[in-house]
Amino acid sequence: MMFLIKNLNLFLDKRLKIHFLIYFICLFVASFLETIGISIIPIIISLHLKEGFFYEKLPDYIINYFASLNLNDFLIISFFIIIGTFLIKNIVIFFIHRFSLLINKTLTAKTTAEVIKKLFKKDFLLFKESTIGKKIRDVTVEADHSTRSILNLLSICQDVIFLTLIVILLISTSSTISILIIGGLMIISALIFISYSALLRKLSIALVKSREILFNKIFEISNLIREIKILKKDNFFIEKYHFEHKKLLQRNYKKLLILSIPKHIIEICAVFFILLIIFNNVFLNELSFREMIPQLTLVIISALKAIPVINTLLLKISHAKGLNVSFEIVAKYLRNKVKFSRKNKSKYSKKISSLKLKNFSFNYKDKTIFKGQNISLKAGDFIGIFGPSGEGKSTLLDILIGALKIDKGLILFNGKKVDDISQLNLNIAFVSQNPKLINSSLKENIAFGEDEEKINKFKIKNLIKMVGLDDFVRNKKRGINYFVGDGGNLLSGGQVQRIAIARALYTNPDILIFDEPTSALDRTNERLIFNLINKIFKENKKMIVIYVSHQFSLIRKSNKKFLVKDKKIKSIK
Question: Does residue 251 lie in a domain region?
Answer without folding.
Answer: no
